[in-house]
Amino acid sequence: xxxxxxxxxxxxxxxxxxxxxxxxxxxxxxxxxxxxxxxxxxxxxxxxxxxxxxxxxxxxxxxxxxxxxxxxxxxxxxxxxxxxxxxxxxxxxxxxxxxxxxxxxxxxxxxxxxxxxxxxxxxxxxxxxxxxxxxxxxxxxxxxxxxxxxxxxxxxxxxxxxxxxxxxxxxxxxxxxxxxxxxxxxxxxxxxxxxxxxxxxxxxxxxxxxxxxxxxxxxxxxxxxxxxxxxxxxxxxxxxxxxxxxxxxxxxxxxxxxxxxxxxxxxxxxxxxxxxxxxxxxxxxxxxxxxxxxxxxxxxxxxxxxxxxxxxxxxxxxxxxxxxxxxxxxxxxxxxxxxxxxxxxxxxxxxxxxxxxxxxxxxxxx
Length: 366
Fold this sequence. Notes:
- The protein is an alpha+beta fold.
- The chain has 8 helices and 18 strands.
- The strands form 6 sheets. It has a 5-stranded antiparallel sheet, with helices on one face. Strands 9-8-10-16-11 form a 5-stranded antiparallel sheet. A two-stranded antiparallel sheet has the order 5-6.
- α1 (about 40-50) crosses α8, α3 (about 135-155) crosses α8 and α6 (about 235-245) runs antiparallel to α8 (about 340-365).
- The longest helix has 24 residues, at about 340-365.
- The protein is globular.
- About 45% of the residues are buried.
C-alpha cells in the first residue's frame, strides 16, 4: 500500500491499523517557530475519540498523543516551538477486542472494504477493518491541529469548525443555527430543537442494531482571498478530494453544490459592492468562498455525505473467501452513525488543505 500521504508543501503521512499497537502520522513542511505542544493537539483528539456517548462506538480509547520529533525547547525559551523538521505523532491503541471479528475472518462484510482490499492485496486485516477502519482518522485530526496552528501563524485568526446538519432522514432548521450549541450535545448539532428528535431516531436504530448516514458541514472563516490555483490545483478540487478520502464519505459539495444546478444565473451570481479597504463586499456566497479554484475571502463552505455504518447486527447476504454464498452478522462496538465523529475529521481535512494552500501561495507570490 503506497498512497498514505496527502498534501504538497504541508504533507501528511498516516500509518497504523484499527487493532495494531499504535497509529499516528508524520507531518512534513510545517514552518519553524510555531508554538506547539501535545495539549494543542489533544483538545482536537478529545472531540473525535470514541466512547463519549451511547451513539458512538463504545471502544474506550484515550487517544493520548505523543510528539516524537519536530519540536524544541530549552531553558532560554518560554515555549516549545516547531523546528521545521518532520513532526512525528504517535497514538497508542489500548482497547482492541480482536476476538469480536473471529467469526467473520473468512467472510466479506457488505458495504465494507473487505472484498476490495482482499481482491487488490490478496490479504486483509479483518480485525475492525485494519487500515480501512475509521480509527485511522485520529491521525488526521492530530495533523489538523498542527494545520490550524500554521494558519494562525500566517493569517492571524482563522476559524475552521463543523457541524452535523442531518442524520438519516432527520435534518435541522437553518434559521436556528447556533455555533454555540455544537459543543453542548452529543451530535455536534447547531440546532438545539433537533437534538431530542435525533436522540429518539438514533436510539431506535441502535436498539435494532442498525445504522444511518449523515451530512456534515464545515466552514472556514478568516481565510484571505487568493489561496488555491487555477485549473489542476483548484482549492475546491483539493478540498473535495481531501473530504472524499475520509472513511465512508460518498459525496462532497462546495457552497450550494448540487443545489446550484437548480438556480438561475441571476440567483446563483454572488453579486459584489464596494467594501472596506478597497475589497469587494459579496452579497451572497453560493460559490462557497471559492471562484475559479481560488478563495474569495468569504467563508469557505463544504458539505460531505457519510454513508450508514456497514457493520450492523442485521443478517446480510454475502460470500466467503472461497466464493461460497453465506450470511453475516457483524458483532463488536460500532457507531450507529459514523457521521457524528466525522465532524472533527472534516474540520481537520479542511485545515490541512488550507494550510497547504497557504504555503503554496506564499511560495509562489511571496
